[in-house]
Amino acid sequence: MRIAVLVFGRLNRCTDHYENIMESLGDNKIDFFVSSDNPDESLLKDFIRLYKPKMYNHSAITYHYDLSKYPGRRYETRMDIMTRHFINKNRVLSLLEEYIEKNGVEYDCVLSLRVDCVFKHGILFDSIEENTIYIPNGFDWVENGINDQIAYGNLEVMRKYNSINPVELLEKGLSIPHPETLNCANIKYHKLLIQRPEIEYFIER
């Protein structure tokens, strides 16, 4: 199986977690893509050396909208981090789309991944159904929220998942300004079916 892995956000612990991540992905052909805004130069070099991404974007992120103006903000929500999280997901999807267009590559599965995840066992990619997003149990945090750390599906599904537009969702009143809640609202907006595979992991920053 050929899998595109879309890494977004921080590159912390990317060297420490490399072997674990590769083992969790199994005996598949893996192509990495990454969007990490303005990372430490040494971390970026380590990531490129180990993961050999097909394409990457490490430029700083600027944006001109304020998600905090929408009602329902929870006290723990860090608006700037959340905003850059969604922008990184959009940017890394754009890299994948560009690579596919230039090279005519086809992928059986696309995985959206934080590189600070540590897996306790491998991920099974043997049943990728149409219009279905696969998101591990746990880390939903709130009612009407869903884990935004790991997700996978076919290319069409992941186009919808990674192209999240938080401003549109908030303008339509479909969510509050909260990462897992917006993630869930985006999935429902695109009418994707959700499967919750048992993937045991934890975050090690």
Description:
This protein has 205 residues and is of the alpha/beta class. It has one domain: Spore Coat Polysaccharide Biosynthesis Protein SpsA, Chain A (Alpha-Beta Complex), CATH 3.90.550. Helices cover 34% and strands 19% of the residues. The chain has six helices and nine strands. Strand 2 (29-35), helix 2 and strand 3 form a beta-alpha-beta unit.
For the secondary structure, the number of strands is 9
CATH class: Alpha Beta
Shape: globular
**What is the gyration radius calculated from CA atoms?**
16 Å
Give the mean pLDDT: 97
Architecture (CATH level 2) name: Alpha-Beta Complex
Q: How would you write the strand order of the largest sheet?
A: 3-2-1-4-7
Give the helix/strand class. Answer: alpha/beta
What's the SSE pattern?
Answer: EHEHEHEEEEHHHEE
Largest sheet: 5 strands, mixed
List the helices and strands and how they pair.
Blueprint: E1 2-8, H1 18-25, E2 29-35, H2 41-51, E3 55-57, H3 79-103, E4 109-113, E5 117-119, E6 132-134, E7 150-153, H4 155-162, H5 166-171, H6 179-189, E8 193-195, E9 201-203
Parallel strand pairs: 1-2, 1-4, 2-3, 6-8
Antiparallel strand pairs: 4-7, 5-9
Question: What structural keywords apply?
Answer:
single chain, 205 residues, five-stranded mixed sheet, 6 helices, 34% helix, globular
Q: Can you summarize this structure?
A:
The chain has one domain (2-203): Spore Coat Polysaccharide Biosynthesis Protein SpsA, Chain A (Alpha-Beta Complex), CATH 3.90.550. 34% of the residues lie in helices and 19% in strands. It has helices spanning 18-25, 41-51, 79-103, 155-162, 166-171, 179-189; strands at residues 2-8, 29-35, 55-57, 109-113, 117-119, 132-134, 150-153, 193-195, 201-203.
